Q: What sequence folds into this?
């Protein structure tokens, strides 16, 4: 073999800057599409019902969905690693049951909240450990987690338990005034704070980048020396913790605990994340997109409420349709980029 | 520092996988300031030894010391923290992240707990500049780059680490001479700064150029450790394959080209006229007759793979025409190409979709079954015979049809990929870098096989960065330059230099 046997200078195909910028931009495309969709729906709503175009209608989208926003944040982490967490709805219900029961027995609100967070985070951690060390599909493990949490709800009580404790009822009624006569609830601030933290963690910490790397190629991430195991476990613990927070927020909102509450909420959370532009295969997506995803779900509900004649099942049908459209959109983008 | 103590010392290492003893009593030493090549055939255990050192695999027995301390890393992360930086054989980066993120993943510079993205960018620029890769945009997505560039980025990542040991497992398999020189400049530089470098390549030329010392493995066993200057190429090869010199002489012989060739008046199997695609390649006039091997020569990035993709319908042509067996045809998709009995063994092993969780047999049978149609099941006995035949023809090791693809060594995976196309008996087979990562013995075997297939009447389009190899197997060579076909040379006694001149000058 002569040194000539491999050829000399290479004419590297340099991607033109415009093209690579476009490619980079393609990453945001599904999320931007969701933002566009949201704005369009808002505009249509304003056209049909003049009262729709009010700041408070917009803010109510947040107020009515604080818990879903927090759930979607946790779910975004999980889905970014290429996993799934089906237990979140049941953990929300469990958190509500535990708080309602303990508050009824006269526990201090602070202690209850800490305990609920520990239970939620602990359950998530346990599922993460099982997924990692027994190498079982997240789908199966979190499905089992869902049955476990839901079962525990029934064990606690079959009946709805009202919450009358001062702090919780205070939070339920509290309004934080903004300019004019606009207001939000304290829960909204908490949820948005969590979103901000999640954004920072995902984009500005090594843990966050590892989450993306695992979703991109788990084997590569391992060979690159990233802490794949601990990150995967932590992601489920985070999701469990978010579910507990969501449970508390939902308690503020509904002032009760009921074992059948939050049925199917895990699916709403997954839908919000996917509509927000995160790929179910992992590695691509933004937590802010998930928030917009929640708002889209919220606005669908608002529409139905404004209309007044439609059955609330229409919400499900519309969400189903949207989900399909977004998954098709993602396919399209994936194909273009690939 | 003490010159005598090796930076890495592995003694009596053994690793077994179900059914294979991948390493058996292997010793290996790596010294400060040396480039040490690990040599051996496909499946000899080179990558396994590297993975044993870096904590991807746990060793069954033996001892590892790094910098005088006994070590047993349990994850690649630990070995990295201990100063060992590795580029694994498979390009291992994350396609969904940008170049700069990949270069610094896990080591991003931080300021007050937050990643300092500005610093990430400037450090990436710096290391890319050191490898003379300034033209790569650090903010572009990894997946937008070719495999060769991805390989360079993986190397950039590894040299960015301030490591005491640098391990490069076949880093040059998709690079061309210029980039190899660039890499070697960096390697020498690091070596002079005292870094210990472990290098693996199947290109003997490169190994002799860069390494000071070699360790040879065969079938998972240690053959020996030698100074490069003490070991002639011939004796190195004979140590690698375990045969004596006579057997080698035969290996080195160019396979005799005996074939029907393109009789005047015959119809070409495929004929392209003015074929092209906007932004890709243009003006391809090429006919391939049954029983003929046509080579594509040109620099990397000249448009060779693009031409192959047009023939296969992986990209749609938007100018010119294609005739298959004399009849005008449009090849709109790979599916259509396969229906016309065209096969394309692509350079991208991962994309190509070898199914890693299936066995060698399953992969071959799937391909066979797909080409025969699903209605008629191939009887098990016929399956077994065919699979055994291809395992033998391509010397796939271990010769076990039930081995999982993902457990095969890199070179053996490449052989299975080739076999998968061969079982479908295409009439035109396009081979894009079919010998990448394949050892010299198997390489000659594949070249011979190409000859035999052509002698049996198959048309073959052969693409390789190794011009010598192209000339060895082809009847005609089409020269590609700047995304167009510039010349066609009949291969009667043409030398590598002749073709180089055409490529360089562009003049016919
Ligand atoms: N995870 C695994 N499970 C089972 N067998 C394995 C595994 N990894 C490697 N092997 C086997 O170990 C042997 C050595 O493989 P290895 O990858 O080290 O070869 P290599 O020398 O790097 O070859 P190449 O030049 O083709 O890259 C092969 O027979 C391979 O099939
Ligand atoms: Mg290898």
A:
């Amino acid at each position: 073999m002569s040194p000539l046997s491999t050829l000399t200078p290479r004419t590297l195909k340099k991607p033109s800057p415009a093209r690579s910028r476009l490619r980079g931009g393609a990453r945001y495309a599904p999320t931007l599409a969701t933002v566009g969709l949201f704005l369009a729906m808002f505009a249509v709503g304003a056209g049909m019902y003049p009262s729709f175009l009010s700041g408070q209608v917009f803010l109510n989208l947040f107020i009515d969905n604080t818990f879903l926003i927090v759930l979607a944040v946790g779910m975004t982490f999980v889905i970014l690693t290429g996993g799934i967490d089906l237990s979140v709805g049941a953990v929300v219900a469990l958190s509500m049951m535990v708080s309602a029961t303990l508050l009824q027995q006269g526990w201090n609100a602070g202690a209850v909240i800490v305990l609920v967070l520990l239970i939620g985070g602990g359950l998530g951690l346990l599922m993460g450990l099982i997924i990692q060390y027994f190498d079982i599909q997240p789908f199966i493990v979190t499905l089992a987690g869902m049955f476990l949490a839901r079962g525990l709800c029934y064990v606690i009580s079959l009946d709805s338990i009202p919450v009358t404790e001062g702090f919780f009822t205070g939070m339920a009624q509290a309004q934080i005034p903004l300019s004019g006569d606009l207001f939000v609830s304290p829960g909204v601030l908490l949820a948005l704070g969590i979103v901000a933290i999640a954004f920072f963690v995902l984009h500005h910490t090594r843990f966050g980048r590892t989450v993306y790397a695992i979703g991109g190629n788990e084997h590569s991430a391992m060979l690159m020396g990233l802490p794949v195991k601990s990150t995967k476990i932590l992601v489920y613990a985070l999701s469990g913790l978010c579910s507990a927070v969501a449970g508390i927020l939902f308690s503020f909102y509904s002032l009760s605990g009921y074992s059948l509450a939050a049925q199917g909420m895990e699916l709403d959370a997954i839908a919000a994340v996917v509509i927000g532009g995160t790929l179910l295969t992992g590695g691509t997506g933004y937590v802010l997109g998930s928030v917009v995803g929640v708002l889209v779900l919220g606005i669908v509900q608002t529409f139905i409420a404004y209309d007044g004649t439609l059955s609330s099942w229409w919400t499900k049908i519309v969400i189903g349709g949207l989900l399909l459209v977004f998954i098709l959109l993602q396919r399209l983008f994936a194909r273009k980029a690939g | 520092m003490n010159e005598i103590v090796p930076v890495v010392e592995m003694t009596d290492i053994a690793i077994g996988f179900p059914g294979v003893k991948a390493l058996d009593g292997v010793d290996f030493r790596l010294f400060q300031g040396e480039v040490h090549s690990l040599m051996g055939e496909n499946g000899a255990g080179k990558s396994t030894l590297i993975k044993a050192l870096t904590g991807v695999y746990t060793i069954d027995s033996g001892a590892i010391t790094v910098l005088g301390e006994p070590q047993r890393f349990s994850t690649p992360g630990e070995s990295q923290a201990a100063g060992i930086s590795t580029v694994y054989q498979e390009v291992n980066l994350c396609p969904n992240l940008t170049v700069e993120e990949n270069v610094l993943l896990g080591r991003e510079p931080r300021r007050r707990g937050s990643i300092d993205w500005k610093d990430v960018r400037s450090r990436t620029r710096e290391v890319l500049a050191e490898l003379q890769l300034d033209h790569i945009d650090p903010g572009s997505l990894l997946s937008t780059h070719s495999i060769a560039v991805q390989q360079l980025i993986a190397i950039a990542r590894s040299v960015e680490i301030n490591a005491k040991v640098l391990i490069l497992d076949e880093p040059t398999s998709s690079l061309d001479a210029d980039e190899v020189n660039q890499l070697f400049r960096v390697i020498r530089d690091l070596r002079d700064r005292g870094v210990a470098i472990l290098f693996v390549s199947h290109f003997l030329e490169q190994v002799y150029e860069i390494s000071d010392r070699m360790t040879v493995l065969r079938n998972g066993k240690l053959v020996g450790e030698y100074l490069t200057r003490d070991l002639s190429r011939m004796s190195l090869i004979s140590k690698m394959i375990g045969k004596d010199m006579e057997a080698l002489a035969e290996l080195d012989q160019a396979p005799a080209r005996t074939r029907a060739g393109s009789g005047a008046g015959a119809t070409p199997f495929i004929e392209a006229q003015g074929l092209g695609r906007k932004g890709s390649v243009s003006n391809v006039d090429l006919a391939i007759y049954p029983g003929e091997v046509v080579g594509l020569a040109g620099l990397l990035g000249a448009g060779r793979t693009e031409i192959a993709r047009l023939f296969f319908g992986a990209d749609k042509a938007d100018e010119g025409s294609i005739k298959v067996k004399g009849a005008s045809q449009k090849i709109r998709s790979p599916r259509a190409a396969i229906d016309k009995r065209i096969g394309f063994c692509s350079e991208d092993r991962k994309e190509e979709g070898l199914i890693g969780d299936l066995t060698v047999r399953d992969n071959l049978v799937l391909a066979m079954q797909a080409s025969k149609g699903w209605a008629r099941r191939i009887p098990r006995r016929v399956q077994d015979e065919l699979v055994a035949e291809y395992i033998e023809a391509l010397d796939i090791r271990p010769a076990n049809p039930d081995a999982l693809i993902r457990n095969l060594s890199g070179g053996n995976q490449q052989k299975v990929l080739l076999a998968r196309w061969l079982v479908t008996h295409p009439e035109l087979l396009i081979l894009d870098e079919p010998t990448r990562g394949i050892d010299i013995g198997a390489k000659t075997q594949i070249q011979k096989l190409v000859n035999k297939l052509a002698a049996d009447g198959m048309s073959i389009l052969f693409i390789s960065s190794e011009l010598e190899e192209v000339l060895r197997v082809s009847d005609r060579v089409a020269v590609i330059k700047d995304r167009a076909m510039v010349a066609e040379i009949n291969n009667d006694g043409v030398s590598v230099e002749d073709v180089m001149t055409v490529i360089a000058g562009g003049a016919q």
About this structure: Chain A touches chain B through 46 residues (CB under 8 Å). Residues 30-333 of chain A form a domain with the ABC transporter involved in vitamin B12 uptake, BtuC fold (CATH 1.10.3470). DSSP finds 15 helices and four strands in chain A. The beta strands of chain A are 161-162, 176-177, 183-184, 256-257.
